[in-house]
Amino acid sequence: MQTLFKNPSFYFLLFLALILSLFPGYSYYRSVSYKAGVASYRELPSFFTNHNYALYPAKKNTTPPPEITAEGVFIIDVESAVPLYEKEAHKILYPASTTKIMTALVARELYDLDEILQVPEATYSGSLIKLEPGERMSVRNLLYGLLISSGNDAAEVLASHHPNGRDGFISMMNERATQLGLLNTFYENPSGLQSPQHVSSAWDLGQLAAVALRDESIRSIVKLQEKTVFGEDGERHVLNTTNKLLGVVSGLDGVKTGYTGEAGEVLVSSITRNDRQVVVVLLKSKDRFAETRSIVDWVFASHEWKDIQPKEKLLN
Q1: 222 and 147 Cβ atoms separated by less than 8 Å
Q2: What is the tens place of the pLDDT at every residue in 144-197?
């Protein structure tokens, strides 16, 4: 040990270790925000760099985003988790039927797709796929009704079969929101019917949609414009999408619409072009479909995706 302390190399290495400890690693991933049409940057937390490096979205011109009426807006690049645009993204607003994204996610965790659920004796309001009391339908077909035609009755049937009943299902929705870090989200029902404490934000819905789209079943359903499903005894239900942009906007493959008088027009969209997927959330818009089209065009016209590697990898 005394020999070690007499060795000059020991003190050099000790000094070097001290110097390095004072300088944290540099992140090559930056998120882009916009103010008055000018791009600014902030470093992302280091955990975003602890993966195989995703292509990074970078602004390629100075074109500002279009003016839109939506009170809450959030756009995120799904693969890199980089926000592309925010407007009052954390403002607490009503989610309306975009609630059903969480309903679908919880149902996928709770049931098998081929499990058969029976429609209870109950009265449902709002958007319906016209399930009849006593009718039996698979979870898979209920999810079609939930996400294509925005059936409130489908949402309630899925919720009613939780082991602790409807309240247990709603508790599970709120627990999942907490686990995902959706701090401005709280659910009071599984369908999105207007309720004072039933709230969310554009940021929360963007994160939720990105998680839900990892589920292959949800991802395959939300892109459909129409579907005919059957109950176990042959009852026929023709489902048509509530999303007017499906089949119209290039690359648009979901996700969910919503509307109440208090919520205004709500739309969560997924768009994939040239293998790049973004999620766009508009809350309390006056023209959700036109505004989504314009801001999607701006996103892909104003950004390019680059392969950004750390210095040490570039030198190899």
Answers
A1: yes
A2: 999 999 999 999 999 999 999 999 999 999 999 999 999 999 999 999 999 999
| Pairs from 125-128 (Cβ < 8 Å, separation ≥ 24) | 125/152, 125/193, 126/152, 126/191, 126/193, 127/97, 127/151, 127/152, 127/242, 128/152, 128/153
Helix (H) or strand (E) holding 205, with range, is helix 202-212
CB 99 within 8 A of CB 189: yes
**Considering the domain 96-304, what is its CATH architecture?**
3-Layer(aba) Sandwich (3.40)
Which pair of tokens denotes residue 57?
A: 């979205």
pLDDT digits (tens, 9 = 90+) for 242-264: 999 999 999 999 999 999 999 99
Q: How far apart are CA 271 and CA 255, in angstroms?
A: 9
pLDDT at 297: 95
Q: Is residue 208 a contact partner of residue 79, using CB atoms and an 8 Å limit?
A: no
The domain spans of the chain are: 96-304
Q: What is the pTM assigned to this prediction?
A: 0.81
Q: Quick one: pLDDT at residue 56?
A: 87
Q: How high does pLDDT run on average in the chain?
A: 86
Instruction: Enumerate the active-site residues.
Output: 97, 100, 150
Spatial distance between the Cα atoms of 246 and 129, rounded to a whole number of angstroms: 20
